[in-house]
Q: What sequence folds into this?
């Protein structure tokens, strides 16, 4: 199967365009690899075929917030912004799993934006979807208390057994807080009997209590 068949967003392109794109090689990126850093030049349009990449905004103190994740068939808004506006990367991307991706060279991307209406629609639709998700991140960080953000994230990440496999630092990054703050909030939730903490994971015991907490919006 060609990589354009693995990427859902490319399914609507005509066969001639897909045939041209299939000549671009697939790269394998091991887990933990930094894909790009702030200040790096944008070299191409990133499409993830397998695995997951987390894109983080890193502050001057080293604290970071997870902006979004790029999974199978998805593209990276940071790459699109750089290619369209000529700016360098302003965030950091790290492979959260062993990942396969395609890097469409800048020249090919810009040529296809100019010449293909179908490709242009695809890129702008993906861009709009990512912008909407970023607005949700901004809304949560600006208007929700840490406790509410943490509760919502635990409910979202919990598996069928109620387990969230993530370290305190990973939870802090995901909700835009500091590890020490998240640690204190987890201790409070554990004392209430709403969660149980184990090494490298959290178990949800009272999803209804967390759900009510997640609905609180006042900062």
A:
């Amino acid at each position: 199967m060609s990589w354009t068949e693995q990427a859902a967003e490319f399914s609507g392109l005509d066969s001639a365009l897909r045939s041209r794109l299939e000549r671009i090689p697939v790269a394998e990126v091991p887990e933990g690899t930094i894909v790009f850093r702030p200040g790096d030049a944008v070299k191409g349009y990133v499409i993830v075929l397998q695995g997951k990449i987390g894109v983080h905004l890193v502050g001057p103190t080293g604290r970071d917030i997870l902006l979004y994740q790029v999974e199978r068939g998805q593209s990276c808004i940071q790459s699109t912004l750089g290619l369209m506006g000529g700016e360098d990367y302003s965030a950091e991307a790290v492979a959260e799993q062993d990942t396969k991706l395609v890097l469409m060279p800048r020249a090919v991307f810009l040529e296809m934006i100019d010449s293909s209406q179908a490709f242009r629609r695809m890129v702008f639709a993906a861009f709009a979807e990512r912008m909407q998700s970023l607005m949700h991140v901004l809304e949560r960080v600006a208007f929700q208390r840490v406790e509410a953000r943490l509760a919502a994230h635990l409910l979202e990440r919990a598996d069928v057994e109620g387990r969230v496999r993530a370290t305190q630092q990973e939870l802090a990054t995901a909700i835009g807080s500091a590890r020490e703050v998240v640690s204190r909030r987890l201790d409070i939730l554990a004392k209430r009997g709403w969660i149980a903490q184990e090494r490298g994971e959290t178990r949800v015991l009272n999803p209804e209590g967390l759900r009510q907490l997640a609905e609180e919006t006042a900062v």
